[in-house]
From TrEMBL:
Gene of this entry: thrB
Segments forming domain GHMP kinase N-terminal: 78-159
Protein name as it appears in the record: Homoserine kinase
Subcellular location: Cytoplasm
Any one GO biological process: threonine biosynthetic process
Organism ancestry: Bacteria, Bacillati, Actinomycetota, Actinomycetes, Bifidobacteriales
Residue ranges constituting the GHMP kinase C-terminal domain according to the UniProt record: 254-311
Chief subcellular location: cytoplasm
Length: 341
Protein backbone atom coordinates (compact mmCIF):
# COMPACT_ATOMS: atom_id res chain seq x y z
CA UNK A 1 0.00 0.00 0.00
CA UNK A 2 2.87 2.34 0.84
CA UNK A 3 4.46 1.64 -2.55
CA UNK A 4 1.23 2.64 -4.28
CA UNK A 5 1.11 5.86 -2.25
CA UNK A 6 4.69 6.70 -3.21
CA UNK A 7 3.84 6.08 -6.86
CA UNK A 8 0.84 8.36 -6.64
CA UNK A 9 2.93 11.09 -5.04
CA UNK A 10 5.46 10.92 -7.88
CA UNK A 11 2.83 11.19 -10.61
CA UNK A 12 1.92 14.67 -11.87
CA UNK A 13 -0.59 15.87 -14.42
CA UNK A 14 0.69 16.60 -17.90
CA UNK A 15 -1.90 19.31 -18.53
CA UNK A 16 -3.03 21.84 -15.92
CA UNK A 17 -6.24 23.06 -17.57
CA UNK A 18 -8.95 20.99 -19.23
CA UNK A 19 -12.28 22.08 -20.67
CA UNK A 20 -14.94 19.42 -21.16
CA UNK A 21 -18.29 19.63 -22.95
CA UNK A 22 -20.76 16.78 -22.37
CA UNK A 23 -24.14 16.40 -24.11
CA UNK A 24 -27.47 15.76 -22.48
CA UNK A 25 -28.85 12.31 -23.18
CA UNK A 26 -32.20 10.58 -23.27
CA UNK A 27 -32.35 6.89 -22.43
CA UNK A 28 -34.84 4.06 -23.01
CA UNK A 29 -36.60 5.80 -25.95
CA UNK A 30 -39.74 3.94 -24.94
CA UNK A 31 -38.96 0.33 -25.75
CA UNK A 32 -35.18 0.19 -25.23
CA UNK A 33 -35.28 0.00 -21.43
CA UNK A 34 -31.80 0.17 -19.87
CA UNK A 35 -30.14 -0.39 -23.27
CA UNK A 36 -30.81 2.42 -25.76
CA UNK A 37 -29.64 6.03 -25.50
CA UNK A 38 -29.49 9.13 -27.67
CA UNK A 39 -27.21 12.18 -27.33
CA UNK A 40 -28.76 15.63 -27.62
CA UNK A 41 -27.10 18.84 -28.79
CA UNK A 42 -27.54 20.51 -25.39
CA UNK A 43 -24.43 20.61 -23.26
CA UNK A 44 -22.91 21.25 -19.88
CA UNK A 45 -19.52 22.97 -20.10
CA UNK A 46 -16.96 22.42 -17.36
CA UNK A 47 -13.50 23.92 -16.78
CA UNK A 48 -10.96 22.04 -14.64
CA UNK A 49 -7.75 23.70 -13.41
CA UNK A 50 -5.17 21.80 -11.37
CA UNK A 51 -3.67 23.83 -8.53
CA UNK A 52 -0.04 24.85 -9.01
CA UNK A 53 0.95 23.98 -5.44
CA UNK A 54 1.38 20.17 -5.25
CA UNK A 55 0.72 20.35 -1.50
CA UNK A 56 -2.68 21.97 -2.10
CA UNK A 57 -5.17 19.11 -2.38
CA UNK A 58 -8.30 21.19 -1.91
CA UNK A 59 -11.19 21.75 -4.28
CA UNK A 60 -12.96 24.95 -5.30
CA UNK A 61 -16.29 24.60 -7.10
CA UNK A 62 -18.34 27.31 -8.78
CA UNK A 63 -21.62 26.62 -10.57
CA UNK A 64 -23.82 28.67 -12.85
CA UNK A 65 -27.09 27.63 -14.42
CA UNK A 66 -28.93 24.42 -13.50
CA UNK A 67 -28.25 23.27 -9.95
CA UNK A 68 -26.52 26.49 -8.90
CA UNK A 69 -28.68 26.68 -5.77
CA UNK A 70 -28.77 22.98 -4.92
CA UNK A 71 -25.59 21.15 -5.98
CA UNK A 72 -22.74 20.77 -3.44
CA UNK A 73 -19.52 22.71 -3.80
CA UNK A 74 -17.16 20.25 -2.16
CA UNK A 75 -15.79 16.73 -2.61
CA UNK A 76 -19.32 15.29 -2.68
CA UNK A 77 -20.09 16.97 -6.01
CA UNK A 78 -20.48 14.08 -8.47
CA UNK A 79 -18.09 15.65 -10.99
CA UNK A 80 -15.40 16.00 -8.31
CA UNK A 81 -15.88 12.53 -6.81
CA UNK A 82 -15.72 10.98 -10.32
CA UNK A 83 -12.57 13.00 -11.05
CA UNK A 84 -11.01 11.70 -7.81
CA UNK A 85 -11.87 8.09 -8.62
CA UNK A 86 -10.34 8.40 -12.07
CA UNK A 87 -7.21 10.00 -10.62
CA UNK A 88 -6.76 7.08 -8.23
CA UNK A 89 -7.21 4.59 -11.06
CA UNK A 90 -4.66 6.42 -13.19
CA UNK A 91 -2.18 6.76 -10.33
CA UNK A 92 -2.37 10.53 -10.53
CA UNK A 93 -2.85 10.98 -6.81
CA UNK A 94 -4.82 13.73 -5.13
CA UNK A 95 -4.75 16.82 -7.32
CA UNK A 96 -5.87 20.20 -6.03
CA UNK A 97 -8.69 21.32 -8.29
CA UNK A 98 -10.72 24.36 -9.29
CA UNK A 99 -13.92 23.46 -11.12
CA UNK A 100 -16.26 25.87 -12.86
CA UNK A 101 -19.47 24.31 -14.20
CA UNK A 102 -21.83 26.01 -16.64
CA UNK A 103 -24.85 23.73 -16.42
CA UNK A 104 -27.69 23.63 -18.92
CA UNK A 105 -28.88 20.04 -18.40
CA UNK A 106 -31.80 19.91 -15.92
CA UNK A 107 -31.15 17.93 -12.75
CA UNK A 108 -33.18 14.82 -11.84
CA UNK A 109 -35.43 15.13 -14.89
CA UNK A 110 -34.35 12.22 -17.11
CA UNK A 111 -31.82 14.01 -19.34
CA UNK A 112 -28.68 12.26 -18.11
CA UNK A 113 -27.34 14.84 -15.65
CA UNK A 114 -25.64 12.23 -13.45
CA UNK A 115 -24.08 10.46 -16.43
CA UNK A 116 -22.87 13.85 -17.68
CA UNK A 117 -21.22 14.60 -14.34
CA UNK A 118 -19.47 11.23 -14.20
CA UNK A 119 -18.27 11.43 -17.80
CA UNK A 120 -17.02 14.98 -17.28
CA UNK A 121 -14.98 14.13 -14.17
CA UNK A 122 -13.41 11.01 -15.69
CA UNK A 123 -12.66 12.73 -19.00
CA UNK A 124 -10.93 15.63 -17.25
CA UNK A 125 -8.73 13.34 -15.16
CA UNK A 126 -7.70 11.27 -18.18
CA UNK A 127 -7.10 14.39 -20.27
CA UNK A 128 -4.76 15.82 -17.63
CA UNK A 129 -2.61 12.70 -18.03
CA UNK A 130 -3.06 11.82 -21.71
CA UNK A 131 -4.28 14.96 -23.46
CA UNK A 132 -6.68 13.09 -25.76
CA UNK A 133 -8.04 10.13 -23.79
CA UNK A 134 -9.47 6.99 -25.35
CA UNK A 135 -13.28 7.12 -25.42
CA UNK A 136 -13.61 3.42 -24.72
CA UNK A 137 -11.60 3.86 -21.53
CA UNK A 138 -13.83 6.78 -20.49
CA UNK A 139 -16.92 4.68 -21.19
CA UNK A 140 -15.62 1.66 -19.26
CA UNK A 141 -14.89 3.66 -16.13
CA UNK A 142 -18.02 5.82 -16.32
CA UNK A 143 -20.34 2.85 -16.82
CA UNK A 144 -18.70 1.10 -13.85
CA UNK A 145 -19.30 4.12 -11.61
CA UNK A 146 -22.84 4.75 -12.89
CA UNK A 147 -23.71 1.05 -12.69
CA UNK A 148 -25.59 0.99 -16.00
CA UNK A 149 -24.40 2.29 -19.37
CA UNK A 150 -27.51 3.51 -21.20
CA UNK A 151 -26.92 7.24 -20.55
CA UNK A 152 -23.15 7.02 -20.33
CA UNK A 153 -22.75 5.51 -23.82
CA UNK A 154 -24.33 8.36 -25.84
CA UNK A 155 -22.71 10.96 -23.57
CA UNK A 156 -19.28 9.55 -24.51
CA UNK A 157 -19.80 8.52 -28.15
CA UNK A 158 -22.72 10.66 -29.34
CA UNK A 159 -25.56 9.55 -31.59
CA UNK A 160 -27.76 6.52 -30.96
CA UNK A 161 -26.24 3.76 -28.87
CA UNK A 162 -27.06 0.31 -27.58
CA UNK A 163 -25.01 -0.74 -24.57
CA UNK A 164 -24.77 -3.88 -22.49
CA UNK A 165 -22.73 -5.66 -19.86
CA UNK A 166 -21.07 -9.03 -20.46
CA UNK A 167 -20.58 -10.91 -17.21
CA UNK A 168 -18.45 -13.74 -18.65
CA UNK A 169 -15.87 -13.56 -21.41
CA UNK A 170 -17.20 -14.90 -24.69
CA UNK A 171 -16.32 -18.55 -25.21
CA UNK A 172 -16.60 -19.64 -21.56
CA UNK A 173 -18.93 -22.59 -21.49
CA UNK A 174 -19.25 -22.64 -25.28
CA UNK A 175 -17.16 -23.27 -28.37
CA UNK A 176 -14.89 -20.42 -29.43
CA UNK A 177 -15.21 -19.56 -33.13
CA UNK A 178 -11.82 -20.04 -34.86
CA UNK A 179 -10.22 -16.76 -35.92
CA UNK A 180 -12.57 -14.63 -33.86
CA UNK A 181 -11.62 -12.28 -31.07
CA UNK A 182 -13.81 -12.97 -28.04
CA UNK A 183 -15.59 -10.14 -26.28
CA UNK A 184 -14.11 -9.20 -22.93
CA UNK A 185 -15.99 -9.10 -19.67
CA UNK A 186 -17.51 -5.69 -18.86
CA UNK A 187 -19.45 -2.96 -20.66
CA UNK A 188 -19.84 -2.73 -24.43
CA UNK A 189 -21.49 -0.32 -26.84
CA UNK A 190 -22.70 -0.27 -30.45
CA UNK A 191 -23.35 3.05 -32.20
CA UNK A 192 -25.91 3.66 -34.94
CA UNK A 193 -26.33 6.42 -37.50
CA UNK A 194 -29.34 8.72 -37.12
CA UNK A 195 -31.08 10.36 -40.06
CA UNK A 196 -30.50 14.15 -39.96
CA UNK A 197 -34.23 14.63 -40.63
CA UNK A 198 -35.04 13.21 -37.17
CA UNK A 199 -35.99 15.99 -34.73
CA UNK A 200 -36.17 15.78 -30.97
CA UNK A 201 -38.42 17.69 -28.58
CA UNK A 202 -38.04 17.41 -24.82
CA UNK A 203 -40.70 18.78 -22.47
CA UNK A 204 -39.13 19.73 -19.15
CA UNK A 205 -41.37 20.14 -16.08
CA UNK A 206 -40.65 22.18 -12.97
CA UNK A 207 -40.73 19.04 -10.78
CA UNK A 208 -38.17 16.28 -10.29
CA UNK A 209 -38.19 12.50 -9.97
CA UNK A 210 -35.26 10.56 -8.58
CA UNK A 211 -34.02 7.54 -10.50
CA UNK A 212 -34.16 5.55 -7.25
CA UNK A 213 -37.90 6.15 -6.86
CA UNK A 214 -38.48 5.27 -10.50
CA UNK A 215 -36.51 2.01 -10.04
CA UNK A 216 -38.52 1.09 -6.96
CA UNK A 217 -41.75 1.24 -8.97
CA UNK A 218 -40.67 -1.58 -11.28
CA UNK A 219 -41.85 -5.17 -10.71
CA UNK A 220 -39.48 -8.07 -10.11
CA UNK A 221 -40.93 -9.95 -13.11
CA UNK A 222 -42.94 -9.08 -16.22
CA UNK A 223 -45.23 -11.18 -18.43
CA UNK A 224 -43.50 -13.09 -21.20
CA UNK A 225 -45.74 -11.44 -23.81
CA UNK A 226 -44.65 -7.99 -22.63
CA UNK A 227 -40.98 -8.95 -22.95
CA UNK A 228 -41.55 -10.14 -26.53
CA UNK A 229 -43.52 -6.97 -27.30
CA UNK A 230 -40.64 -4.75 -26.16
CA UNK A 231 -38.02 -6.87 -27.88
CA UNK A 232 -39.71 -6.34 -31.24
CA UNK A 233 -40.03 -2.59 -30.70
CA UNK A 234 -36.47 -2.13 -29.44
CA UNK A 235 -35.12 -4.05 -32.44
CA UNK A 236 -36.98 -1.55 -34.63
CA UNK A 237 -35.46 1.58 -33.03
CA UNK A 238 -32.24 1.81 -35.12
CA UNK A 239 -34.27 1.47 -38.34
CA UNK A 240 -36.91 3.94 -37.15
CA UNK A 241 -34.22 6.52 -36.41
CA UNK A 242 -32.56 6.02 -39.80
CA UNK A 243 -35.32 4.81 -42.13
CA UNK A 244 -33.54 5.78 -45.36
CA UNK A 245 -30.38 3.82 -44.61
CA UNK A 246 -32.35 0.87 -43.29
CA UNK A 247 -34.50 0.73 -46.41
CA UNK A 248 -37.67 0.51 -44.33
CA UNK A 249 -40.75 0.85 -46.49
CA UNK A 250 -43.22 2.17 -43.91
CA UNK A 251 -43.82 5.82 -43.11
CA UNK A 252 -40.92 7.03 -40.91
CA UNK A 253 -43.18 8.52 -38.24
CA UNK A 254 -45.23 5.32 -38.10
CA UNK A 255 -41.98 3.45 -37.46
CA UNK A 256 -41.03 5.87 -34.69
CA UNK A 257 -44.47 5.54 -33.13
CA UNK A 258 -44.23 1.75 -33.07
CA UNK A 259 -40.60 1.70 -31.93
CA UNK A 260 -41.36 3.84 -28.86
CA UNK A 261 -44.18 1.60 -27.61
CA UNK A 262 -43.39 0.07 -24.22
CA UNK A 263 -44.80 -2.36 -21.69
CA UNK A 264 -41.76 -2.89 -19.44
CA UNK A 265 -41.26 0.30 -17.45
CA UNK A 266 -43.49 3.26 -18.32
CA UNK A 267 -46.83 1.72 -17.25
CA UNK A 268 -45.40 0.96 -13.80
CA UNK A 269 -44.03 4.49 -13.35
CA UNK A 270 -46.93 6.56 -14.57
CA UNK A 271 -48.34 6.97 -11.04
CA UNK A 272 -45.12 8.74 -10.04
CA UNK A 273 -45.53 11.37 -12.78
CA UNK A 274 -49.21 11.70 -13.72
CA UNK A 275 -48.68 15.07 -15.41
CA UNK A 276 -45.99 13.59 -17.65
CA UNK A 277 -48.19 10.63 -18.46
CA UNK A 278 -51.10 12.88 -19.47
CA UNK A 279 -48.82 14.74 -21.84
CA UNK A 280 -47.56 11.47 -23.34
CA UNK A 281 -51.11 10.20 -23.85
CA UNK A 282 -52.12 13.49 -25.47
CA UNK A 283 -49.20 13.46 -27.90
CA UNK A 284 -49.50 9.76 -28.76
CA UNK A 285 -53.24 10.15 -29.37
CA UNK A 286 -52.22 12.61 -32.12
CA UNK A 287 -49.78 10.12 -33.61
CA UNK A 288 -46.53 11.51 -32.15
CA UNK A 289 -43.80 9.18 -30.86
CA UNK A 290 -43.79 10.40 -27.26
CA UNK A 291 -42.17 8.59 -24.34
CA UNK A 292 -40.69 9.18 -20.92
CA UNK A 293 -37.15 10.52 -21.20
CA UNK A 294 -34.96 8.24 -19.10
CA UNK A 295 -36.58 7.69 -15.73
CA UNK A 296 -38.59 10.91 -16.17
CA UNK A 297 -40.33 13.17 -15.59
CA UNK A 298 -39.22 14.81 -18.88
CA UNK A 299 -41.22 13.80 -21.94
CA UNK A 300 -39.42 12.97 -25.19
CA UNK A 301 -40.91 13.31 -28.68
CA UNK A 302 -39.14 11.86 -31.73
CA UNK A 303 -40.29 12.97 -35.17
CA UNK A 304 -39.19 12.66 -38.78
CA UNK A 305 -39.26 16.16 -40.28
CA UNK A 306 -40.08 19.51 -38.72
CA UNK A 307 -43.16 19.54 -36.52
CA UNK A 308 -42.16 21.80 -33.64
CA UNK A 309 -45.10 24.18 -34.03
CA UNK A 310 -47.62 21.35 -34.19
CA UNK A 311 -46.06 19.59 -31.19
CA UNK A 312 -46.12 22.83 -29.18
CA UNK A 313 -49.76 23.34 -30.14
CA UNK A 314 -50.72 19.85 -28.94
CA UNK A 315 -48.98 20.58 -25.61
CA UNK A 316 -50.37 24.10 -25.25
CA UNK A 317 -52.15 23.28 -21.97
CA UNK A 318 -48.88 22.23 -20.33
CA UNK A 319 -46.86 25.09 -21.81
CA UNK A 320 -49.50 27.69 -20.88
CA UNK A 321 -49.50 26.44 -17.28
CA UNK A 322 -46.00 27.82 -16.74
CA UNK A 323 -44.87 24.51 -15.25
CA UNK A 324 -43.39 23.15 -18.47
CA UNK A 325 -40.90 24.35 -21.07
CA UNK A 326 -39.92 22.68 -24.30
CA UNK A 327 -36.51 22.21 -25.87
CA UNK A 328 -36.38 21.48 -29.60
CA UNK A 329 -32.93 19.96 -30.01
CA UNK A 330 -30.72 18.53 -32.75
CA UNK A 331 -29.00 15.22 -32.11
CA UNK A 332 -25.42 15.37 -30.92
CA UNK A 333 -23.19 13.14 -33.08
CA UNK A 334 -19.88 13.95 -31.37
CA UNK A 335 -20.23 12.98 -27.72
CA UNK A 336 -17.88 14.33 -25.07
CA UNK A 337 -15.49 17.03 -26.33
CA UNK A 338 -12.16 17.96 -24.73
CA UNK A 339 -9.78 20.91 -24.88
CA UNK A 340 -6.49 20.89 -22.95
CA UNK A 341 -3.85 23.51 -22.16
Amino acid sequence: MAAQTDKEQRMTSRYRHVSVQVPATTANLGSGFDTMGLALNFHDELSFTAHDDPADHGVDVSIEGEGADTLPRDETHLVVSSFRKACRTLGLGRVGLSLHARNRIPQARGMGSSAEAIVAGITAAMAMVQGDPDRQAIFDMAATIEGHPDNVAPAVFGGLTTSWRLDLPEGQGSMTIPGSEPLSRGFHVARYAVDPAITVSVFVPDFELSTERAREALPDAVPYADAVFNLSRAALLPAALNPGLAGAGDDPNALLFAATQDRLHQPYRRGLMPESWRLIETLRSRGFAAAVSGAGPCVLVLHYGRAQDVIDHEAREQLDSGRWRVLHLPIDHRGVAIDVA
